[in-house]
Amino acid sequence: QAGDTLRQAGLAATLGRLRDQGRAGFYEGKTAALLVAEMRRGSGLITKADLQSYQPRWRTPLHGQYRGYDVLAFPPPSSGGVALLQLLQMLEPYDLAQAGWHSPQATHWITEAERRVYADRATYLGDPAFGYVPVTQLLARSYTRRRMASTLPRRATPSAQVAAGADLPAYESDQTTHYNIVDAAGNAVSCTTTLNGAYGSKVVVAGAGFLLNNEMDDFSSKPGTPNAYGLVGGTANAIAPGKRMLSSMTPTILTRGGKLALVVGTPGGSTIITSVLQAILNTLDYGLNAQQAVAAPRLHHQWLPDHLDVEAYALPPAAQDSLRARGYALKPRSAWGRVEIIRVLPDGRLEGGADPRGDDAAAGY
């Protein structure tokens, strides 16, 4: 209960091995032996050889632009960076500020873009080590313009009528944590880590003190079958030995004129991409400060299921009526995501925003 001291001796020992032995302190030696023993107890599949062969990979960030800002985003096997850059490109031609925050027209534009991006996500995105992922084609401005050309000015497009874009080669928080750091020299980190579901697989490695994730759910176990977050996947994200599963993690950095401008990210499963999008739009299009940008109520659409998730107070009754008249199915939903922002102001001061949906905090010294 509150006030009690939780002593995690097994985890402390594991962290000590990481400190003293580096990579070998986890993927080899005692920690690896404890993890494999846990696998055997629970009829799991991870072997000593699996752990020894695992290698992290440095990846070059994706680069895009939005309203004069350079956007540096997370590449595959996360879907987040590709999806976010697609969304920003699709929305840049529209005057969101003039339309108004969460106005029926702005909501229509944003939702139609989300619907199309998540359809592409389901078809094309996966681990690039196991098949071609057409990132360049997906981020071509000619492609994103063509994707939005099918939208109707004032009418929702049923998701059943929205497929992945043609002419691209197709190939076979209670769970997630995000933090941002900016130092005095202007270096920045946007970092997202995840167990996937709440407490992951709900299995603690005996003697080692850490939870095992349930990231296998992020693979497409069967094309067209939704995962725990309702996301539908295809063969590009099918399970294969040594393959990295598709995620929605979207740690993102924006610069302007070569100078750091914004650092942003969040947990939230399938809602991560749209939550990061809205935080950027709130800041750049609607002029909100960092705290206002992360606190503002959110909307979310992910193609399937075909409804618009609506947080409390996100849409006034008149806007809801207008959207229903356009053909949108609205679904009230409890709060999601815990977006964190660090914004660098023109005078060099830092402005932090911590999501009030959790016990998050922004701190500086």
Description:
This protein is an alpha+beta fold and 365 residues long. 31% of the residues lie in helices and 15% in strands. The chain has helices spanning 9-21, 24-27, 29-41, 48-53, 80-91, 96-99, 104-124, 135-138, 141-148, 272-284, 290-295, 317-325, and strands at 62-66, 69-73, 176-182, 188-194, 252-256, 259-265, 299-300, 308-310, 330-332, 340-344, 350-354. The strands form 3 sheets. It has a 6-stranded antiparallel beta sheet. The protein has a 3-stranded mixed beta sheet with strand order 7-8-9. It is globular and about 60 Å long. The chain starts with 8 loop residues before the first helix and ends in an 11-residue tail after the last strand. The mean pLDDT is 94.
Comma- or semicolon-separated keywords:
alpha+beta, 3-stranded mixed β-sheet, 365 residues, Glutamine Phosphoribosylpyrophosphate, subunit 1, domain 1, 6-stranded antiparallel β-sheet, 2 domains
Question: Could you give the topology of this structure?
Answer:
Blueprint (H helix, E strand, L loop, with lengths): L8 H13 L2 H4 L1 H13 L6 H6 L8 E5 L2 E5 L6 H12 L4 H4 L4 H21 L10 H4 L2 H8 L27 E7 L5 E7 L57 E5 L2 E7 L6 H13 L5 H6 L3 E2 L7 E3 L6 H9 L4 E3 L7 E5 L5 E5 L11
Parallel strand pairs: 8-9
Antiparallel strand pairs: 1-2, 2-5, 3-4, 5-6, 6-10, 7-8, 10-11
Helix pairs in contact: 5-7, 5-9, 5-10
Question: Nutshell version of this structure?
Answer:
This protein is of the alpha+beta class and about 375 residues long.
Q: Average the pLDDT over all residues and give the rounded result.
A: 94
CATH class group of the largest domain: Alpha Beta
Q: Report the portion of residues in β strands.
A: 5-15%
The DSSP helix count reads 12
SSE arrangement, N to C: HHHHEEHHHHHEEEEHHEEHEEE
**CATH homology group of the largest domain:** Gamma-glutamyltranspeptidase, small (S) subunit
Q: Residue share in helices?
A: 25-40%
From the alpha carbons, calculate the radius of gyration and give it in angstroms: 21 Å
Structural class: alpha+beta
Tell me the CATH architecture of the largest domain. 4-Layer Sandwich
Please give the oligomerization state of what you see. single chain
Low-confidence stretches: none
